[in-house]
Design brief:
By secondary structure, the protein is mainly beta. Helix content is 13%, strand content 54%. The protein has a single domain (23-131), classed as Mitogen Ypm (Jelly Rolls, Sandwich). It is built from one helix and eight strands, in the order αββββββββ.
Length: 132
């Protein structure tokens, strides 16, 4: 019985100590971004962090609002100055809707704001990028 209690205590201590590698999303860095995306265009922003943690992006404005549908955003990983988009990390950039991209490991990433074929004129956009 003592062995079971000791084993449980050691296992619990191990699990709790391994959780310290991440960061509480409430303590994330919030970075503002803005720019202009042209018809059929892309705009990239690079970010780096040194802890694993949750990523959240909110588009705060798109002017003029596209009439044929929303612009999109995606997360990629930077290598040799190029942004390689991560599979499954593409979402619509709807104004005032938070998009949670889940947990990403420490590293250098890029946020790509792009026209998926809906723009007839360039649009100005702004938003926030929350990362560890």
């Amino acid at each position: 019985m003592r062995f079971c209690r000791l084993f449980t205590a050691v296992a619990l201590a191990f699990v709790l100590s391994s959780c310290s590698g991440g960061i509480d999303p409430a303590n994330n860095t919030i970075a503002n971004f803005s720019g202009t995306v042209g018809v059929g265009g892309h705009v990239f922003f690079n970010y780096s962090w040194n802890k694993n943690g949750e990523i959240e992006v909110t588009m705060t404005s798109v002017i003029p609002p596209p009439t044929n549908g929303p612009i999109w955003m995606q997360i990629g990983q930077v290598s040799s100055g190029t942004c390689f988009i991560l599979q499954g990390y593409t979402q619509q950039a709807i104004v005032n809707r938070k998009v949670q991209f889940g947990v990403l490991n420490k590293g250098t990433y890029c946020l790509d704001i792009f026209d998926p074929g809906v723009l007839t004129v360039p649009v100005n956009f702004a938003g926030t990028f929350s990362h560890p």
